[in-house]
Amino acid sequence: MTKTSIIANGIVLTCDATNRCGAYHLLVANGRILDISESFDKLVRDNPDAEIIDASDKLLLPGFINAHYHTESFLLHALTDGTHYTLWNENTALKQTSERLMHASSAKDLDVLYGTAYAAHARCGTTWVGEFPPCVHEESLVQIARAIETSRIGSVLALRTWDHIRGTRALGSGGLRAAVSLGEERDMTVYSIENALRAAKGLKASILAHVAEQREDADTMLRNFQKGIIALLRSFNALRPETIIVHANHITETEAAMVKDANGTVVVCPRSTAAKQTGYPALRHLAKRFVRLALGTDWGSIDMVEEMRFVSQLPLVVPGLRAFSPLEIVRMATINGAAALNIHKDTGSLEVGKRSDIVFFSLNSLRVAHLSKHSRAEEVARCVVDILTTGDISDVMIAGEFVLRDRTLTLFSEPERIAEWRGLCSRYLPGQPALQRPVQPAAQPANIIPFTQEPREPQAAEGFESGFPPSPSPPAATTPEVPPHPFANRPKVQREPAKIELPKNTRTVFGDDEDF
């Protein structure tokens, strides 16, 4: 028997092409949205047997889409915090723990790890994840996929090895979606790329490309292929709207233009890359070319609300950086994430025909007393980005079923899951405070550049740290379902850069090698 529900009396931000916002009532059946109406009486009259779900004093958004995440980091980030990414290979504790976790005998531990991490995703309002698993054995990948499916959260699983491809085929037809990874830039050859493309075609899967996360990655591509990875993808006819492009910390404006011409989306992970000190998304180039952007938390964090807030606050600490509007940022975490993972026809916005993947924020707080059913979309988005937290999430619905109801996870006993998780941590992270981590060498203590009131001019550098000026309204959307961000484009005013001499051992607050 079809279960029909009417979600009534909430404030709704749809994140569709028109960004509808207001007091709407949603009719949900078979995991899909059948109607979005201003008339509650009409929905009840037409569906007299429907269950009424009262969403008074709640804000309804599309479920968040974390478009790039390494779930092993949910455990391992304790070993990497504060360590430069290039030093991870020298971290003995990290290497030993990773090898133990990826061993075929650790399949049950992976079940606990992924089950716990995805329960935490649900608490944070995430309903889809672009999962980038470690290079585990075939049986272990099957265990990972089943743990994800048990959570009800949707996932696009990156296949990194032939064992992964075999494991995915063994799963048969389930709710899992797959993307074939091209691998690390230093290992790419014409032969490996052609094989990955053939595998993706056979699986009817997308291609996933880790693009220029580090400067060394971009340099390797130029040395081996005499072109960047974006141009290489285009030469293989693999630069398409459905190609998943992640990071893009060190791409050029020309490469950004290629992504735009292909109607592609770039998944940026600014907070993680700042923590790993690998460089920053080239937002200056991406914005100038109106490239659609999605968000991923990448390593450690799973909180998409905090990720949005980080993006919002970057201009406060990076002079000259264009501020994204709150609505742009919310779309990065919803419909744009769906576009990045090629699932935007199914989810990412609240529209008739799409899955009922919904996150409910409680508005019963003095912090949000100004929000009402007459608030505009931009005002509602600003509340999400600047005021609300994951602690305000009361309910999460995935395909019409609540996985979080009245702040309680519905699929399992949370105390039992916490006990399992603590047991896993005690086995893999014994004596965590005493772990030895490599320390970056420094001849003298670094002088940190303080925040000052003096104006500073942005320097000519790649990445969002260089900044770019505000500009007028963007061009019209290329597709009705997933319009590009309204980025702007004005000629840059040339000024003489400030000449400031600093001690040789000075280090900026964003890392040793980056320039503002």
Mean pLDDT reading:
85
Q: Outline the low-pLDDT stretches.
A: 433-473, 476-480, 482-503, 505-516
**C-alpha end-to-end distance:** 60 Å
Overall shape: it is: globular
Rg measurement, Å: 23 Å
What characteristics describe this protein?
eight-stranded parallel beta sheet; 19 strands; disordered C terminus; single chain; 516 residues; nine-stranded mixed beta sheet; alpha/beta; 17 helices; globular
In brief:
This protein is α/β, with parallel strands linked by helices. The chain is built from 17 helices and 19 strands.
In words, what does this structure look like?
The protein is of the alpha/beta class and 516 residues long. 46% of the residues are buried. α4 (107-123) packs parallel to α5. β9, α7 (190-203) and β10 (206-211) form a beta-alpha-beta unit. Strands 1, 2, 3, 4, 5, 14, 15, 16 and 17 form a nine-stranded mixed beta sheet that branches. An eight-stranded parallel beta sheet has the order 6-7-8-9-10-11-12-13. The longest helix has 17 residues, at 107-123. 34% of the residues lie in helices and 19% in strands. The model is unreliable at 433-473, 476-480, 482-503 and 505-516 (pLDDT under 50). It is globular, with a radius of gyration of 23 Å. The chain has helices at residues 40-46, 73-80, 92-102, 107-123, 138-151, 162-171, 190-203, 215-225, 229-235, 253-261, 270-276, 283-288, 304-317, 326-332, 335-340, 377-386, 414-428; strands spanning 4-13, 21-29, 32-37, 51-54, 58-62, 64-69, 126-131, 154-159, 177-181, 206-211, 244-247, 265-268, 292-295, 358-362, 393-398, 401-405, 408-409, 447-448, 506-507.
